Amino acid sequence: MLDLNAKIPSGPLQEKWDQHRFSMKLVNPANKRRHNVIVVGAGLAGASAAATMSELGYNVSCFVFHDTPRRAHSIAAQGGINAAKNYQNDGDSIRRLFYDTIKGGDFRAREANVYRLAQLSVNIIDQCVAQGVPFAREYGGLLANRSFGGAQVSRTFYARGQTGQQLLLGAYSALERQVALKGVQMHTFEEMLDVVVVDGHARGIVTRNLLTGKITSHAADAVVLATGGYGNVFYLSTNAMLSNTTATWRAYKKGAAFANPCYTQIHPTCIPVSGDHQSKLTLMSESLRNDGRVWVPIKRADNRAPSAIPEAERDYFLERKYPSFGNLAPRDIASRAAKEACDDGRGVGPGGLGVYLDFADAIKRLGKSTIAERYGNLFDMYQRITDENPYERPMRIYPAVHYTMGGLWVDYNLMSTIPGLHVAGEANFSDHGANRLGASALMQGLADGYFVLPYTIGDYIAGTKLAKVDNTHAEFRAAEEAVRTQTKRFLDIKGKRSVDSFHKELGRIMWEHCGMARTKEGLTEALKLIPALKDEFWSNLNVPGSGDTLNQALENAGRVADFIELGELMCRDALEREESCGGHFRVEYQDAGEAQRNDDDFAYVAAWEFAGEGKTPILNREPLVYENVHLSTRSYK
Amino acid sequence: MKLTLNVWRQPASQAPGKLETYTLDGVSADMSFLEMFDLLNEQLTAEGKVPVAFAHDCREGICGSCSMMINGQAHGPWAGAATCQLHMRAFKDGDIITVEPWRASGFPIVKDLVVNRGSFDRIIQAGGYVSVNTGGAQDANSILIGKDTVEEAMDAAACIGCGACVAACPNASASLFTGAKISHLGMLPQGQPERDTRALAMVEQMDIEGFGHCTWAGECQEACPKEISIDVIKKMNRDYLVASAKRQEPYAATVS
Lengths: 637, 256
Known about the structure:
The complex is a heterodimer of chains A (637) and B (256). Chain A is α+β, with helices and mostly antiparallel strands. Chain A is built from 17 helices and 21 strands. A 5-stranded parallel sheet of chain A has the order 5-2-1-9-17. In chain A, strand 6 (190-198) and strand 7 (201-209) form a beta hairpin. The radius of gyration of chain A is 24 Å and the shape is globular. The relative contact order of chain A is 0.16. The model of chain A has no long low-confidence stretch (mean pLDDT 95). Chain B is an alpha+beta fold and 256 residues long. Chain B contains 8 helices and 7 strands, in the order ββαβββββααααααα. Chain B has helices at residues 33-46, 118-125, 147-157, 164-168, 175-187, 195-208, 219-223, 231-245; strands spanning 3-9, 18-24, 69-70, 73-74, 96-100, 109-111, 114-115. Chain B has a 5-stranded mixed sheet. The chains are: A alpha+beta (637), B alpha+beta (256). Chains A and B meet through helix 3, helix 5, helix 6, helix 11 and helix 12 of A and helix 1, helix 2 and helix 3 of B.
């Protein structure tokens, strides 16, 4: 069993972070350059952390497997970033953002972490503007805002439908400036394949160079994993194709607890699947639901063109079911409502798996050019993929896997259960509970990187006696050897099935049995199917080519091997959690289609501990204590 | 549909490469160009051959990874679309498609269709930023920026760093890429203090990386998946000339 200590500071909620910053130890400015910090991943969380720590004076080594850090999947986020600035004077405040996020997470997130996130949100916007991020503005020159799901205030800052791109490029530019100043050593085409633990502390990583196949290890005083989410366990998701769980999964096997893996988010508005060849799903930003209205025909199997269906025969089901939030109901709720409509035989498009997102009213009210200004790039994207014009015909959308609230367990300092191993951004489990609100992932990644890790890592380094190690130490050599053996093993199997075919099959099992609606039978079945798939993977995998050159199939093999094991843990976690909350919906625990929580028995963080190959993982529970919010049924009606 | 693909194969950066011909059947019009390549690679793998290496990631035109020269056009025939956004309905049964990597000395070939675009990072390192450390920023609304200005800056900031501009240019110039970043920051108040040195340093780095000069051919803006206008090159040239006339020395270290 693990001793899970979240290290939440005492005192009133609003003062915890400020008190903590005072009580955390500092590293003397002249000493910072004696300390190496490794950052794996350079998306929002990684780039901001690496840049900031280099600015402070630490020696930072940053590792990405892409050709350049600007490819991180943060680049694809569309709609916006939340902050409690209350520029719109509509009732927003830090406390309201805190409350909306806790409620949005269905009361399964840690109060103190979420409050801090809301508090830091205002600083993030200031930093981004200072970097030159071109957020949308009003005519008078002030920043513009829009609304997002789960909120009744307009607190989202955006740059067209490319907010993630602009925020990432801001952090990337700060990172590249540090590379030029020699504060950050950037390693591209290097994939992290293991954590090195010495005397119980994370002291480095093992990487494989994707161009040469060479496996090397790197030593540091602290390690940060900012490697994103595991949505691609479902094969089809809105994630970039190379997004994976490998870094966090390998850390899990070295002792980092994996928390709430079954909390996966399904985003309601994505372009529906068009065939078996589909390689990923394309997100249509939640911001569209500011102006689009979601509907299906009232009649079942209604094949008429949407323009032929009169108003009286349309079911604007989100507006009907949730009058106060309407089309901006949070993602888990909107996704389930769409699934319900399609399961009822009223879905649209090929296969009946789609609902309409209709802009006709908004175009009539605001004019086409205003809609184009707000969403232009998204409309173009939709048209290119479907060959349908959303200015003239409603968009067809369907829920798709998008984000993972689960991830490595971290304490208030963003440190995992391996001392010295810190985890930031989507890779950690921390702030979103069982469901993430729109526009808050960007907020969390940057809060972690710009404003939390630079302090907490300093505290760790200043407060820990770290023996001098380098990559010639025994643990480093051993870890390198293990990675070499594993990598070679994929090549030696020489079976008949491609990596992709295994990945697709895993995805089908996960979507079918651990998707939007989970049952005891389905999850139990998955826990038989996945081990069988795993056995076949290790005996029948075919990886062409060799390991000493660029070999994308070999890279993918490692990632899929980890996804298979993670998928199993997710199903176990979903089976164990006998309640419905946020994105985790157990059909047996519902109230007329709405999630039914069981706070008496399940108000905890499920932190899974690796117990060894082939052994059942151990469930550790971190109780969630709410001192500042009243646990209520989460209603958006 | 059934297609004939002529694909550039090059096993390593220093090895000779050539076009190999493949026939591919069962391509659906709904597939994206890269999904078609996935199909090709599954076929090659099943035949015991080495699949084609190609860069890709987001598959929605924003990460800038994908980089194929398709029948001589960077990213293929659709305007404002990256390779991953091109769909097979742009082609018909029986078509012959030639696929090559970006060709520029600033983009050394790694393998098959994959090139190394680290040169773009080095151009950004030379000055594609505002020198501001974390923390200490003033309230975001203290800086007023007119709506039109921010829209124009955003147009330039939308660059995805794919390198199609270089690939399409007869001189393999990186002017559109460099100009886009110089314009984005040069139009905003935050970018003013370093505007001169930024232009000098980034243009100098662009030259060091081996990209060619701009001779106003205009191929870059036609190829750009984000439809960035060559106006950004005008702005870059203006900033560079003004800075040269003022005899500013770039204080940012040039990157080797």
